[in-house]
């Protein structure tokens, strides 16, 4: 009788171990990509400081006109090893989305503005102003045709959607990221409250076992 019980115990133990290893193998890694749009601006410097403190690299989708105003800040962002993506030259929806030709011209103007500051820039990532969610395939193809890959987001601090306190921005980031293993979080370096929320956001995802990555 004892032997049978031992046998059952060993079998169930083996079953558990194999289940666990299988489970571990299929579990996708937990990753978060912090993305900041609409800069560079003076506030970007504060964000860079926080990121440096935690040794985290992020992605900055920059606007051409802002690059021309703050070339040194873009240069610093790039030299610190963050990813630089394009986010239009003018950021004026009406103009950018009037025709595909206008859109492509705007992307290239942004690219040239960045290239002027960072001669060895070879980045080819893009974020549509407002995201690609409501755009036609034809519009999206215009950017793909230029050789760019575009990224939206699946979580947001919602910092461009109203006047949120730093704590509310933090809560928005947490709530919109629930149950996601790969998070692309939207924030804007032009919104000072995001800087104040950033440490709490970082700590939350570090505690949750997420790895911070750049696009
Ligand atoms: Zn934007």
Explain what you see.
With 215 residues, the protein is α/β, with parallel strands linked by helices. It has a single domain, classed as TIM Barrel. Helix content is 51%, strand content 14%. The protein has nine helices and eight strands. Strands 1, 2, 3, 6, 7 and 8 form a six-stranded parallel beta sheet that branches. Strands 4-5 form a two-stranded parallel ribbon. Helix 2 (42-53) runs parallel beside helix 9, helix 6 runs parallel beside helix 7 (137-144) and helix 8 (166-177) crosses helix 9 (192-207). The longest helix is centred in the N-terminal third of the chain and has 25 residues, at 2-26. The protein is globular and about 45 Å long. It starts with a helix and ends with a strand. The model is unreliable at 13-22 (pLDDT under 50).
Give a quick set of tags describing it.
binds zinc ion, 8 strands, TIM Barrel, 215 residues
